[in-house]
Design a protein that fits this description.
Elements: E1 5-10, E2 15-22, E3 25-33, H1 35-39, H2 46-68, E4 77-83, H3 87-104, E5 108-112, H4 113-119, H5 122-125, E6 131-137, E7 142-148, E8 152-158, H6 164-174, H7 181-189, H8 206-212, H9 219-234, H10 241-267, E9 271-275, H11 282-295, E10 298-300, H12 311-323
Parallel strand pairs: 1-4, 4-5, 6-9, 9-10
Antiparallel strand pairs: 1-2, 2-3, 6-7, 7-8
Length: 346
């Protein structure tokens, strides 16, 4: 007997994602992005994102079904992002998922967007071992999670202020780079010297280790970059964009990987999964690969196309929930912009 066919809907921010999976096999991952509509504002405008989801939802679902060569009546379950995310966009996705569940008479599963960023790797590298460490880094989250049996999550640490991706966008703005700043800084960093400027590593001092060994902080780093740039500007000196980008990116990657490797050792975990939009960063990938190899830790990072928000990750998490026989969500499931990371399913 084949595994259930799960359709996943993701609308936590500015991407309308629809994925369809059967077991660990991805049939389609269709995405419609409204990022260009937000670029002139220098950030995501929730109302614009919600309207874009409303316009893109039906066409994206239809495109996904056509590409996967399946029909709606063949779908066995509907999974949707219930949180965290922007309330307006989340509400559009939840409404669409509820309508499908009612119309098709299929079970509905409201799942956690952040956990989906890690579990999507099961579609690439196969089922998780019994216990994994997950580092989920994006524009809104820098979270360190212990995941047992794929659906049982313990939050070990998180960002106390700016997330990694958020810090990249803010530094990109002060360097005069287009929005979103992350990809532009990553590109510039490849031609720069990561040791050119010694920027601070937040929460790594001995006095911070007792209370914040698994937490992250990038606000101070962002401020240090701003002050360094301002001092150069005040002196009438040019800003070496490549070196600033490389040194800043190295500081972020250093903190993320050092704290994560240390947590793996403390927890006795030998598999690390890195996910989220910021996991596309080349310095983070390179540093994680080198340090995991040195520590004897199996590193799993999905391809870049699965790192940004997408429906595949929601379908993958939905499939994991169905596989373990967890009860469906109620049809009146609420969306939660601050959904706890320990809550995999509503």
């Amino acid at each position: 007997m084949s595994e259930p066919l799960v359709l996943g809907i993701e609308t936590s921010c500015d991407e309308t994602g629809v994925g369809i999976v059967r077991g660990y096999d991805l049939l389609v991952d269709a995405v419609a992005s409204s990022v260009d509509e937000h670029a002139r504002f220098g950030g995501i405008i929730p109302e614009i994102a919600a309207r874009a989801h409303l316009e893109a939802m039906v066409p994206t679902i239809e495109r996904a079904l056509a590409t996967a060569e399946v029909t709606l009546d063949q779908v066995d379950a509907i999974a949707v992002t219930a949180g965290p995310g922007l309330v307006g966009p989340l509400t559009i996705g939840a409404a669409a998922a509820k309508a499908l569940a009612v119309g098709l008479g299929k079970p509905l599963y409201g799942v956690n967007h952040v956990i989906g960023h890690a579990v999507v790797d099961e579609l690439v590298d196969g089922p998780f071992p019994e216990r994994v460490m997950a580092l989920v880094v994006s524009g809104g989250h820098s979270s360190l999670l212990r995941i047992d049996d794929t659906v049982n999550v313990t939050e070990l640490g998180s960002t106390l202020d700016d997330a990694a991706g958020e810090a990249f966008d803010k530094v990109g703005r002060l360097l005069g780079l287009p929005y979103p700043g992350g990809p532009h800084i990553d590109r510039l960093a490849r031609d720069g010297d990561p040791a050119a400027i010694r920027f601070p590593r937040g929460l790594t001092a001995p006095k911070d280790q007792a209370e914040h060994a698994t937490d992250f902080s990038f606000s101070g780093l962002k401020t240090a970059v701003a002050r360094w740039v301002e001092s150069r500007q005040d002196a009438g000196e040019p800003i070496p964009l490549a070196d600033v980008s490389a040194s800043f990116a190295a500081a972020v990657a250093d903190v993320l990987t050092a704290k994560t490797i240390a947590a793996c050792r403390r927890e006795g975990i030998s598999t690390l999964v890195v996910g989220g939009g910021f996991s596309a960063n080349s310095q983070l990938r390179d540093m994680a690969a080198a340090r995991c190899a040195e520590a004897g830790i199996d590193l799993r990072i999905p391809p870049i196309r699965y790192c940004t928000d997408n429906g595949a990750m929601i379908a993958a998490l939905g499939a994991a929930v169905v596989r373990r026989g967890l009860p469906p969500s109620p049809l009146d499931l609420p969306v939660d912009s601050t959904m706890p990371l320990t809550q995999v399913l509503v």
